[in-house]
Amino acid sequence: MHRARIALQASTRTGNTERFASWLLNKPQAAAATVYANRPKSSTAAEPFLNGSSSAYVETMYNNWLSDPNSVHASWDAFFRNATNGAQPGVAYTPPPNLAPYSKNEVPLTSLVPASGGMPSISAGSPINEKIIDDHLAVQAIIRSYQARGHLAADVDPLGITTAKLPALGMRAPSSELIMRKYFNFDEADMDRVFKLPSTTFIGEKEKALPLREILNRLEQAYCNNIGIEFMFINSLEQCNWIRQRMEPPNVTKMSNDQKRLILARLTRSTGFENFLAKKWSSEKRFGLEGCEILIPAMKQVIDTSTRLGVESIIMGMPHRGRLNVLANVCRKPLHQLFTQFAGLEAEDDGSGDVKYHLGTYIERLNRVTNKNIRLAVCANPSHLEAVDPVVQGKTRAEQFYRGDNEGKKVMSILLHGDAAFAGQGVVFETMHLSDLPAYTTHGTVHIVANNQIGFTTDPRHSRSSAYCTDVARVVNAPIFHVNSDNPEAVMHVCNVAAEWRATFHKDVVIDIVSYRRNGHNEVDEPMFTQPLMYQKIRKTKPVLEKYADQLITEGVVTAEEVKDVKDKYEKICEDAYNQAKQETHIKYKDWLDSPWSGFFEGKDPLKMSTTGVVEETLVHIGKRFSSPPPNAAEFEIHKGLLRILKARMEMVENRTVDWALAEAMAFGSLLKEGIHVRLSGEDVERGTFSHRHHVLHHQKVDKATYCPLAHLYPDQAPYTVCNSSLSEYGVLGFEVGYSVTNPNALVLWEAQFGDFNNVAQCIIDQFISSGQAKWVRQSGIVLLQPHGMEGMGPEHSSARLERFLQMSADDPDYMPPESPDYEVRQLHDCNWIVANCSSPASLFHILRRQIALPFRKPLILMTPKSLLRHPECKSTFDDMVEGTTFRRLIPEEGPAAQNPSNVRKVAFCSGRVYYDLLKQRREKNLEKDIAIVRLEQISPFPYDQIKAEIAKYPNAQLVWSQEEHKNMGSWSYIEPRFRTLLQNQKHIRPMSRSQTGGWFSQLFGKAEAPQSDQTGPHTEAVPRTISYNGRATAASPATGSKAAHNKELRNLLEEFCVL
Ligand SMILES: Cc1ncc(C[n+]2csc(CCOP(=O)(O)OP(=O)(O)O)c2C)c(N)n1
Ligand SMILES: [Mg+2]
């Protein structure tokens, strides 16, 4: 035990505290103190005692006393005074005057000293034996040890094998003696001694002191039984106490007979469902829940309690395991609909569909327990484990936002996880880190881990380095409840506490249901190949339903007949649904939609797009607001550099011109005016990576005083959100996708810092954005803004990998859609996403507005500029944006070449910023009459109709595609086959010169051959025109790291562009 040295040097008062701590711990001699049962805290000095170990406590007391003797209890004051005055061991202590009678539940220290056993008795004014102090401190340390480390010895594993970090298979977790009773110096004789309980424990309920035996019993019950709790790392004393209060009192997990019957009934359904599927479709993969059937009652318990506490809508995300069971028994999706998924029927509606254990659903129903209406949605998800987590959070956030549920009282999320995926997938961490950010919080998520202690064929000891699969949750101070799945009542208690925690603190919480997987990874897998011992154990383990039914029969809560009756009834329900499913001839993907947009499609012409031009007055109003400091706030001090930017903006508005940032603001502002919510999220988006946007102005003198002009355009405008995100792509893009699918009347944009970084979110792009509608009939109008362009910034700040997006565009390169008046919208309707690389601010304005003008929603992948943000030529005028103007998928040549098209010798098609390089080069080489430049503002869907017209306009010109990216990147691989299709389909066919074919010479040397006086050679029969390539050569890296090499490459491509 720690003892204070008696002879304190006077200088210690002002000396450093380290020295005090070291002698306190290392040179024990004597100490004396007193303990008063629950004496009200008179100073802050009392608090560390409640939390810390005894050494920290004594040390803190001493330090407090050094700085102010009045800040500690009088007993400590007396002790330290005596000690510093050289009092002998055991006599430094002087009891303080008893100022008031003991209040209720206070225990005088004298009463804690055994009457016999050779211990000295205490009377007022007499020195106290230090053993009493030591023993009390030891008891408190033991209590704290249970609270902090009890989970390590808890019996949470229904198989009785151990977790990853703990010893070999077949051993129970180490005993609590080993782990908690480090300070245990007591023998049997001490067991009946009464010890005062600190106010940081609730094991005593109303008792303030208990015999040691009872203290240990209660601690064992609370912390080392079937629930293991990790919470002592939480920084809030209030929150720690809240948990202790709910977990420590004896019998907290006791349930009423009605509750027990409800658990049994739910367990019967959960088990019955899997049994039924196993019986009917024995060789179908369904990723059954066997071994963790308690998951269903657990989820229902969380839902019941949350609904009771006010939640009306729950959004859930989960992996494959037990998903069908959740849909059937938690969401109560009609069973026959589920069963038709096994029948291999064709779909009645569009889409390529998904496997049954990935589908989502949405259901509104009455919660019979709380008698309240509740909406439940399970988000569709891909195989990619945990990828759905941020999507669920985004959807939850959006639902809270639209309902005005600013504290998350009405809408919440539940995320289910597998143990291996929860520990292994980084997106879990990224999602957790969104949990408390102002623009991303969902005000607490209940995480439930179906911890079957295995991931496919891999044991925990090979799949994670942390002790628990849940350790990631510690970073956000979430309490973690590990619970044995074979104790249904403990599971339900934990679920109640978790739901209450979420409702009270609006923070994340984790329920780790430690269970097992009765079968292989799926139903046709053999687990004995890889986990023989574990599966021998599993084979001998009775299903929890049987165990619990036996328990309730023994307790007299139910009879064996009742158990059988409930089971038979559910089987009959399944059988009826099975017969009903047999009548079905088709499945409907729409039945599996997780966010129906009721009212959005109804009564709409599916091919009618509204206009995107707006009246000039609106442009002027938005432009002026966007260029002004906060109105009526002269004291709002803006940075001088920003004032210059605002001034330049205002001048542009006065000149009826716009740059990129102004065009973007006008697109947002005009949509906000029309009642469309706009949300822009991503790293540093408020200012903009390139310092061009400045949507949030910061007061230079007042912290957190900001002004967002776009949020204050019109009194009745829709809300505008612009938010800097955490430094995450996977998590944040997933979040915004979830946000975007919730309500079609919103423009949701995610901006990459540089387009290069989008590949960190590749899974969201591949699994949700490009294929989401095809798999799940779920539309999203999300916009990805991706700074892109070869500007000599090196391999990682140049390319947004345009080629990848184009490669995933689902339009057939060999098929040219027939021409029609609604060509544009028809193509957009049929595509999986839109890929564009706009060159003008007006194009940006229109394409953003078109997202909302469409009668459906499509993702938009937009390459955005960097240097063009300040390029003097990259401007548009109001004339390109006012009423009557639209988005131009293609911007034709409008200069001299267009005046005399038959003389034009080359038409260069291009997209994005390279246009400005080509323009400059053409000007410098005086080729404005010879070369026409045509810009594809939208690359995919491919504007065949407009390209065709351009080609026809220049009958004598060779066709080239000019791009700045390397040949195996950029648009070339996408546009080349489509040009071929178009040219082959074209009526206008003319003989070609060899130079037009971009033949062997140009391919070898990157240059065209010398022109051959329109000579057609010996083979003059009509062949289709072709398009040749003008751009950088192929490469492995997207861009060179050398500025010189970059410039040389650019020079080459521009020279080649000028070769006629
Ligand atoms: C990102 C990702 N990587 C790999 C897989 C393949 N896979 C499917 S299930 C599984 C094991 C998952 O284990 P766990 O998370 O514990 O869930 P369980 O199947 O045990 O319920 C793996 C590796 C996947 N679906 N997603
Ligand atoms: Mg697992």
From TrEMBL:
GO terms for molecular function: metal ion binding; oxoglutarate dehydrogenase (succinyl-transferring) activity; thiamine pyrophosphate binding. GO terms for biological process: glycolytic process; tricarboxylic acid cycle. It comes from the Eukaryota. It is an enzyme of class 1 (oxidoreductase). Its cofactor is thiamine diphosphate. Its EC number is 1.2.4.2. GO terms for cellular component: mitochondrion; nucleus; oxoglutarate dehydrogenase complex. Residues 658-871 form the Transketolase-like pyrimidine-binding domain. SMART domains: Transket_pyr (SM00861). Keywords: Oxidoreductase, Thiamine pyrophosphate, Transit peptide. The 2-oxoglutarate dehydrogenase complex catalyzes the overall conversion of 2-oxoglutarate to succinyl-CoA and CO(2). It contains multiple copies of three enzymatic components: 2-oxoglutarate dehydrogenase (E1), dihydrolipoamide succinyltransferase (E2) and lipoamide dehydrogenase (E3). NCBIfam families: 2oxo_dh_E1, PRK09404.1, PRK12270.1. Belongs to the alpha-ketoglutarate dehydrogenase family. This is 2-oxoglutarate dehydrogenase, mitochondrial.
